[in-house]
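RETRY 2/3 - previous attempt timed out on the joint model. Re-submitting the same 808-residue input unchanged.
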Amino acid sequence: MSDAVVRPDLDGAAHRDRHAADAAHHGPPTGFWRRHVFSLDHKVIGRQYLDLALVAVTTGMILSWLMRIHLAWPAQAIPGLDKLSPNGAANGVISPEYYLSLMTMHGTIMVFFVLTTAPFAGFGNFILPIQVGAEDMAFPRFNMMSFWVTALAFVVLLASFFVADGPAISGWTAYAPLSAVGKDAGPGLALGQTLWAVSIAIFCVGQLLGSLNFIATTLDLRTKGMTLARLPYSTWAWFITSVIGLIAFSVLLPACILLILDRVAGTSFFIPGGLVLSDRLQPHSGGSPILWQHLFWFFGHPEVYIAILPGFGIVSTILPAMTRKPLLGPRVFIGCLVAIGFLSYMVWGHHMFLSGMNPLSATLFSVPTLIITIPATVTTLLWIGTIYGSRLRFTTASLFCLGFVSVFVSGGLSGFFLAQPSIDTYLHGTYFVVGHFHFVMGVASMFGIFAGTYFWFPKMYGRMMNETLGRWHFWLSFVGVYCIFMPMHWLGLAGNVRRYAAFTDDYMKPMVPLHRFITVAALFTGAVQLLFFINLFWSRRRGAIAPENPWEATSLEWTTASPPVHDNFGGRHPVVHHGPNEYGVAGALGRDYVMQDSPESLPVRA
Amino acid sequence: MPVRPAARGHEHPTAPSTGVWVAVATITMSFAAYTSAMVVRQGTSGDWLHFRLPSILWLNTVLIVASSVALELGRRNHARGGTAAEGGVLTLPGPVSLTTRWIDVTLASGILFLAGQLVAWRQLAGEGLFLATNPSSAFFYVLTALHGLHLLGGLAGLLYVRRRLRRGPAVAAGPALGAGALYWHFMAVLWLYLLTLLVVRL
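RETRY 2/3 succeeded.
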């Protein structure tokens, strides 16, 4: 870090004029477009990301409903679906290929446009600059581009629903050569798959711009006294996540570019020679399908941590405020985040145990996979230790934190099985894996998003959310997700393959009743989310007016108005004296906590 | 900890160079991915076609190295100057017109480099080597195109720096100039790396 540069005033008046111009430039924008659409304000951009995620998660959930209904009642016509896809769902009955389209879009939308945008880009954008005491992100223009590029990627992806052939059918992992050869391979693999690859490439650019901003802001724009050790845990998590994202997306982008070239320019990066599809010899030769898997999973596994680590940070920020106890082992927690970030790059091969890799390589990927469970387990123990013996305030936010820990442990435990190449060989193609990753990556991240929403909503919109509705939302969702994903583990152990559109043979027929139960649970849990929507929109207008610091929390976002003014602190530059973990102390102001910018000296722990 | 005002990135003394360092890490990572893809692809099948690189690449290499040197001279000229003030380090910029002239040299040789790369493509195409002809030619086009795109970004950045220098106060453009130079030097180093890779592999 260089010393501060004191700006000389040698240019005299000209310089002062520029200062005045700068100040004017930094005032709140007045035009509609700059305020609400192409805003440079990190708070607006954060909310835009969250709104985008809300649209995406609704789309993704409806897709999962369609799939679940088809799995339980394969002959059931879904009214209106034939309007969306006359070929894929003639008379409203989903064809096997269209089922794969729905599955591909569900996975792609959820992983990229929900689990990456909401916890990381959404909350991170809104909260991180305030938590470090900055007026905005380091590069507001890049920040704005980051959002709009991501929105464009989403539109490009959705467009594939409306092309003649329908969306891609190759799954969210888009394995080559299926994803690379084009229309001869089947429906959805012509324009739909190209749109998929273009969309993801654009998405990578957006996330790279976002990560760049997060890193520069955390490193350079911290206010006076905000040392790295005093950063709130959520900011630590977003920082580590952006480092992971930077490396991950800068590998996925080249992979997508090469895939696009294979598809549209006739190259053979991923397509082997001698493929005959639809009675036509493919004009490619010599490519390596496994190369795509390596590049994809080098991104894909860290992506799991991009989805989950912000949840770690959110839970670690909320739990101390709700237990009125400091987080147990804060340095250990940050060490675990760093360790997970590092190890996340050594384990990608465990997604490829079935690719025919050398058993020795499989073992080499298996060992770090088991090692990475150690920091994950340690953080879980830190949360449980923080809760232990505390008088937890049962707010909706803390309930979702408990739910987060619960589903993370449930999903994590099945991970131990899958980390063994020999067991994975049996389980990899089954619903066991579906249950595993939905718990540990999907539901856990979602619960982190919910916890963050109930916790930060007052700061973001200036109004409290309804706690009664929130509690119903939590308990019904909590029971619902266990009803959906727990039986999937059993189905997997029984040999129920995944990715099939229907289970009609004698072996899998007996499992259909359980699939029907899961479908009912999925429809129910999805419907429960209406409570969240109602709460969200009702509270925005009618909720009780939020005070500055409703949760009696310590970090800097709670020292400013709800919602914060345009430059966050109203021209004030907060000075930080303490870490974020000063809970359960006898503060000088008669409070049981000390805020980060409070000049009071640290009292003895109560 | 130094005392730092909460400022926006483009005015902040270290944020531009932090941003560029992060960009350098990202670009390095993506070219590492292309490199590994190239190594794997070459090893996968026996269809790798070796060909002679277009000779204009050597001239282009001289151009990009020269542009990097010119920019460094401009940066040093800007950073040179008096240092004296009360209460802090004060840096007086060197003559602004000299700095912008060096930047102009950089921009000109950068554009010539890009034109030279296009000539290299045409020479290759003239030999019947296109993007889809062979994986080796495919990687040649992909790597040079992506390097060129990143260099275009550098050109845009230098134009922005040049505008800020001319509009003044010139001293405030220092961090941006430093960051722009860092990026440009990285582009030159990246090209030297790619050239080595192409010479070794093609």
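The two ends of chain B are 51 Å apart (CA to CA). Closing ticket.
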